[in-house]
């Protein structure tokens, strides 16, 4: 009898893909829409008996055929995916898995970051990863009332500024997190710089990077790439669990967010925060959007204007610091990318 | 030897171990996960440290996930990860620092 072997399942390989889907289905797992690598282990008859996938720095969509459980196949699949990630330079890895299978991954060197009780567990392969991030944050813990907000600021608008001003006025310290993941039109370095410039007049704002932990492609891939509602809801809940830990490290008692009339994922995220955060003693404040010329200001409208070259309308929607960046040489490649994109609504 | 870039060697299969080496912060930081840590934790750490010493690695973050590997396996996996980190694939010093 030949040893089972592991191979990549090419997305164009209909037969392999169907077998992987069937394995996942039997485990009650729906294949994530956004994957960049899938592998399967085949038995001597060419039937898929185990599978696993990657997206960004995460491992996901694992399943082992019921007839082969307890044979250590998961270990081989995880080894294969770790090697694949190493080959492309990813060593800090994340995964989320159903609560009842988390212990298998704990035996493979993965450590729990957060969990949605009875549903999902979020893990990483660094023992000190998340605890280290929290410890570094604790240095910025301040006395008095602290609040927090998280923004992608893609790019920073008068709406973001209004939110920061209102939130900062409500507390002694506002911890403002900028999404670090570079999956948006504007690069992280530019987004962070514009947030810093646009909040420079607010002395009680402390800027932080989200790192891989909040709103990252590890915890919350559907924030950047559309997915189905139940997948988005699960990821949003996990993100809220991670935020609770961050809030406790910084003694944050309120989370501020802009009202979300258009984006489906952010709307869902807000709804889940409104539901979950008060249970952890954190107030959730959803601020109505700042308006310009009768319409709510949003970063997606700003991107739409940039795409159409409508710089006149921009003046009413972004602070001078953002405007001067948008009209600089530095922003030219991003604007070019916006012009060529099919849609600028998401991300 | 210097750990120039992250590298991984070994597997998570039974009787093996997976070793990841990364550039360190001035010393050797060792993170060990093992199914048999209570029985053999001390011995496993000793083998890893000795191997790193022999390879003259004094600045590295080393993560080992052990699935019950024998000492000789642990030693081989550590050596392999360190050499991979230096992109050395040929003319390995068999009988020299690798013995």
As a percent range, the share of helical residues of chain B equals 25-40%
- Globular, elongated, flat, extended or rod-shaped: what is the shape of chain A? globular
Number of helices of chain A: 12
Please describe the biggest sheet of chain B, giving its number of strands, its sense, and whether it closes into a barrel.
4 strands, mixed
| Count of DSSP strands of chain A | 14
The percent range for strand residues of chain A is: 15-25%
Query: Order of helices and strands of chain A, N to C?
Result: EHEEEHEHEEHEHEHEHEHEEEHHHH
CATH topology of the largest domain in chain A: Rossmann fold
- Major sheet details of chain A: 7 strands, mixed
Largest interface: A-B, 17 and 16 residues
CATH-level-4 superfamily name of the largest domain in chain A = HUPs
Structural class of chain A: alpha/beta
* Multimeric state: heterodimer
| Spatial gap, N to C terminus of chain B | 16 Å
Low-confidence stretches of chain A: none
Compact summary:
The complex is a heterodimer of chains A (347) and B (99). Chain A is built from 12 helices and 14 strands.
């Amino acid at each position: 009898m030949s040893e089972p072997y592991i191979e990549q399942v090419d997305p164009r390989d209909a037969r392999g893909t169907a077998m992987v889907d069937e394995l996942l289905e039997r485990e009650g797992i729906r294949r994530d829409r956004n994957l960049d690598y899938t592998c399967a282990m085949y038995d001597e008859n060419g039937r898929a008996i185990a599978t696993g996938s990657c997206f960004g720095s995460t491992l996901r969509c694992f399943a082992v055929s019921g007839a082969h459980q307890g044979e250590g196949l998961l270990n081989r699949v995880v080894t294969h995916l770790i090697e694949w990630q190493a080959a492309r330079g990813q060593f800090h890895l994340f995964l989320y898995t159903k609560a009842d299978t988390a212990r298998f991954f704990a035996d493979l060197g993965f450590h729990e970051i957060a969990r949605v009780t009875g549903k999902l567990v979020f893990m990483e392969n660094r023992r000190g990863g998340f605890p280290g991030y929290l410890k570094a944050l604790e240095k910025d813990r301040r006395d008095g009332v602290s609040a927090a907000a998280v923004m992608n600021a893609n790019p920073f608008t008068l709406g973001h500024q209004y939110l920061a001003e209102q939130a900062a006025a409500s507390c002694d310290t506002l911890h403002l997190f900028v999404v670090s993941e570079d999956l948006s039109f504007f690069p992280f370095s530019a987004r962070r710089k514009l947030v810093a410039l646009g909040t420079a007049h607010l002395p009680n704002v402390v800027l932080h990077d989200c790192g891989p932990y909040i709103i990252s492609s590890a915890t919350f891939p559907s924030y950047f790439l559309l997915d189905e509602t139940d997948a988005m809801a699960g990821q949003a809940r996990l993100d809220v669990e991670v935020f609770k830990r961050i809030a406790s490290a910084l003694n944050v008692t309120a989370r501020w967010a802009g009202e979300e009339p258009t984006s489906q994922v952010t709307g869902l995220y807000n709804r889940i925060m409104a539901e979950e955060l008060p249970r952890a003693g954190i107030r959730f404040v959803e601020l109505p959007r700042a308006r310009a010329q009768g319409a709510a200001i949003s970063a997606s409208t700003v991107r739409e204007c940039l795409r159409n070259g409508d710089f006149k309308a921009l003046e009413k929607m972004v602070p001078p610091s953002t405007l001067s960046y948008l009209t600089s040489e530095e922003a030219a490649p991003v604007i070019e990318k916006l012009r060529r994109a099919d849609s600028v609504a998401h991300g | 030897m210097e750990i120039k870039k992250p590298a991984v060697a070994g597997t998570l299969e039974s009787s093996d171990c997976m070793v990841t080496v990364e550039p360190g912060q001035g010393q050797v930081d060792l993170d060990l996960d093992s199914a048999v840590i209570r029985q053999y934790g001390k011995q496993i750490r000793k083998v890893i440290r000795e191997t790193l010493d022999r390879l003259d690695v004094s600045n590295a973050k080393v993560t080992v996930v052990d699935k019950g590997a024998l000492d000789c396996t642990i030693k081989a996996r550590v050596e392999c990860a360190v050499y991979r980190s230096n992109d050395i694939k040929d003319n390995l010093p068999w009988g020299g620092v690798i013995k």
